[in-house]
Amino acid sequence: MSHKVTPESPIGIFDSGIGGLTVVKAVQAALPQEKIIYFGDTARVPYGPKSQVTIRKYAADDTAILMRYQPKMIIVACNTVSALAFDVVEKACGTIPVIGVLKAGARLAVQATKNNRIGVIGTQATICSNAYAATINRLDPETQVFSKACPLFVPLAEEGMIDHPATKLIAADYLREFEANGIDTLVLGCTHYPILRRIIEETLCPAIRIIDSAEAIALRTRELLEESGMLNNTGEHASPHLMVSDLPQKFSRIYKLFMGSELPDVELVEV
Question: Which residues are marked as active site?
């Protein structure tokens, strides 16, 4: 299944919830002329604790929603889908390129590390899949990867508890072992985690470089569009079209927290 794409076609981005807005923000900042269609599966978030079978089904559903808009590329902003169902998305997209946060983040981490000791934090499913370690080791077999699941970070981020003493305690508990491992680079292996970036930075030794895969994705998106001659040069700045599968009360508050602006119109779609 392939469709006719032009440089004016939109970029489709999806995530398990609203964490992927960090990717929308980074892509928009790097490529302000691109049309972005975003789908956040807020009805079924979080994906992290679920089984691979379920995650693969959700990935197919999410991709199908974006494919209705005939995008020129799809960005998998969900690390859990990136780790466990990337092939499902690729198959559903036919000929259009698909990029995932996992590979982009792994690449940036390998370029950044000086001592070849990289930490990765993510959801239960992402960490159990071992996909980050495998991808990093394919890029550089010398690198040692230390992974840690931080399942409470998603709900804390979604509740906007970015300065809460409880979040600080949990961060201290989760991140304690990284000090002993002597990492110099930490990958935020979940799109929700940049919201808690300040607490994560305050908990870790200041010399540790934090890798936010949203920034890595924005760079990769530009590269791919330039290579394929698909950059949109119409000169118009389009606001992203946002879709969610459920509109929780806290959505607009979190949007403001992530994006630093008021909530635009959001469309409710059924999965």
Answer: 78, 190
- CA distance readout (Å), 42 to 58, 67, 104, 176, 245: 12, 19, 24, 31, 5
Sign for the CA dihedral angle at 59, 61, 6, 216 comes to: negative
By the 8 A CB rule, do 210 and 197 touch?
Answer: yes
Contacts of 27 (CB under 8 A, 6+ apart): 11, 13, 34, 36, 75, 217, 218, 221
Angle between helices 213-227 and 21-30 (to 10 degrees): 50
Per-residue model confidence (pLDDT) at position 59: 98
Mean pLDDT of 248-255: 77
185-189 and 117-122 strand pairing:
parallel
In the beta sheet, which residues pair with residue 185?
118, 209
Helix (H) / strand (E) containing 147: strand 144-149
Question: Do residues 228 and 221 touch, judged by C-beta distance below 8 A?
Answer: no
pTM of the model: 0.91
